[in-house]
Amino acid sequence: MAFNPTRAVVRNEGCDLHYWHQGTGPLLLFIPGGNGHGRQFNNIMAALSDRFTCATFDRRQMSASAVVSGLNKKLNPPQQARDIRAVVTALGFDRAILFGSSSGGILALQFAHDFPGMVDRLVAHEAPTITLLPDASRVLEWFLHLMEVYETRGLEAAAAEFGEQLIGYDDEGIPKTVPPPPENQRNFWENEFPVLLGFCPNLWRIRENGTSVGVMRAVRCKEAFFARTPAEQAKILGLPGVMTVPGHHQGFEVETEAFVPCLLEMLDDLEKRKSGGSV
């Protein structure tokens, strides 16, 4: 379908959350990661809006979703989960299928922890829960190093070093992603990165709640830290495995046609698992 969404705003805890939606059927909500902007999901929303009510939003303090006070604060994962709840409720639903990519996957898992009854199914795409990695100490110290680079040499230096892990973005023939506004990157490094480097939702409780969860890794990311975390999440959540999907860390945006069948397959598997069937 052509991309022609309905746009709206809902205020939650002092922030005007800008969201948009298209299609009919069960709600499939796409949650942005560290770049904060929902427009990266426009292509996949158009592709899936023939069978779902597809929706996304700009996260708090990102792109159009400005806080009323004008003063940005440190990332608060439970608050971001409440923002997700506000969008779901504003759309007129009491449950949603969630797709969260990168730190959006972490926030989707936090939502599942805090509001398990509102989760139909959940897909976490390369959620970087680095404290679960076998080499967590090494990766954590690298993250702390990046914070020091940001504080002493500035955003461009930190982003450039971090960007070395974004494998596959320069592969031949791969379209470029649509960049977020510059202020999103500043907010990420100033207010989100310091929290995300050590944060992991309580996956054990999510498992106890019986939430239907699936995890993905992108084939072009090879052994980047965020491509290795899904395997560790799967162990704790008791999942049968990790789905390897086309593209790089934002493959859903630029290799949408190849990505969509994998997402639909996982959603079907999660529905069977939720119903007690085989996968």
Itemize the secondary structure elements and their pairings.
Elements: E1 6-12, E2 15-22, E3 27-31, H1 42-48, E4 53-57, H2 77-90, E5 96-101, H3 103-114, E6 119-125, H4 136-153, H5 155-163, H6 182-196, H7 203-208, E7 213-218, H8 225-237, E8 243-245, H9 251-254, H10 256-274
Parallel strand pairs: 3-4, 3-5, 5-6, 6-7, 7-8
Antiparallel strand pairs: 1-2, 2-4
Organism: Staphylotrichum longicolle
Protein name: AB hydrolase-1 domain-containing protein
Domain AB hydrolase-1: 26-148
Question: What's a quick, concise take on this entry?
Answer:
The protein is of the alpha/beta class and 279 residues long. The chain has helices at residues 42-48, 77-90, 103-114, 136-153, 155-163, 182-196, 203-208, 225-237, 251-254, 256-274, and strands spanning 6-12, 15-22, 27-31, 53-57, 96-101, 119-125, 213-218, 243-245.
Instruction: Kindly name the structural category.
Output: alpha/beta
Rg to the nearest angstrom?
A: 17 Å
Distance between the termini: 29 Å
Q: According to CATH, what is the class? A: Alpha Beta
Corresponding CATH architecture: 3-Layer(aba) Sandwich
Keyword list:
alpha/beta; Rossmann fold; 8 strands; 279 residues
Describe the 3D structure.
With 279 residues, this protein is an alpha/beta fold. The chain has a single domain, classed as Alpha/Beta hydrolase fold, catalytic domain (Rossmann fold, 3-Layer(aba) Sandwich), CATH 3.40.50. It has 10 helices and 8 strands. It has an 8-stranded mixed beta sheet with strand order 1-2-4-3-5-6-7-8, sandwiched between helices. Helix 8 (225-237) links the parallel strand 7 (213-218) and strand 8 (243-245). Helix 2 crosses helix 3. The longest helix has 19 residues, at 256-274. It starts with 5 loop residues before the first strand and ends in a 5-residue tail after the last helix. The relative contact order is 0.15. The mean pLDDT is 96. This is AB hydrolase-1 domain-containing protein. Residues 26-148 form the AB hydrolase-1 domain. InterPro entries: AB_hydrolase_1, AB_hydrolase_fold, AB_hydrolase_sf.
